[in-house]
Design brief:
Elements lengths: L19 H6 L7 E5 L1 H12 L6 E5 L13 E7 L7 H6 L9 E5 L23 H20 L3
Parallel strand pairs: 1-2, 2-3, 3-4
């Protein structure tokens, strides 16, 4: 099951506990991952940090945590774009110390920040050197690998 949350005011940081609703509503699901794109990833990381008993995995799309989560006991995949002008490769690299040592990092060559969603060009973003379709195929594949591992209890 995948749940897409409608964040208040279009900003995930306005309700950091929002992920608890679907988790509580589906007790038959025993393994959960939370994730998000950009600020949504920041919010998901905070939720995972604050609710370790509920979350087995964290999926970051062009994002990184604000706080140190290096001691967290959860599977983490960080997917980023090599041409991202907002969550730049340098920012993603500098956040690695805040994530568990066994975090999986996937950099999609040629991808920009906007390729992790479908809202069009964004000021400050980079210039893509690959197609949106190819980038999104790679993003989906890396995302599924984390989710498949979580669903198997990995």
């Amino acid at each position: 099951m995948v749940v897409v949350l409608k964040e208040p005011l279009g900003i995930a940081l306005t309700d950091l506990g929002q992920s608890a609703g679907p988790i509580d509503a589906h007790p038959e699901i025993t393994h959960w991952a939370v994730g998000g794109h950009s600020l949504g990833g920041v919010a998901a990381a905070r939720f995972a940090e604050d609710h370790p008993e509920l979350v087995d995995g964290l999926l970051l799309h062009a994002s990184y945590p604000l706080d140190d989560m290096s001691g967290a006991d959860l599977a983490v995949t960080s997917i980023s774009g090599s041409e991202d002008g907002l969550s730049t490769p340098a920012k993603v690299d500098s956040s690695q110390a805040k994530l568990p040592a066994d975090t999986t990092y996937v950099q999609v060559s040629g991808a920009v920040h906007a390729f992790f969603a479908d809202y069009g060009a964004q000021p400050g973003d980079g210039t893509p050197t690959t197609s949106r379709a190819d980038s999104q195929d790679q993003i989906v594949t890396a995302s599924r690998e984390l989710l498949d591992g979580i669903s198997l209890g990995g």
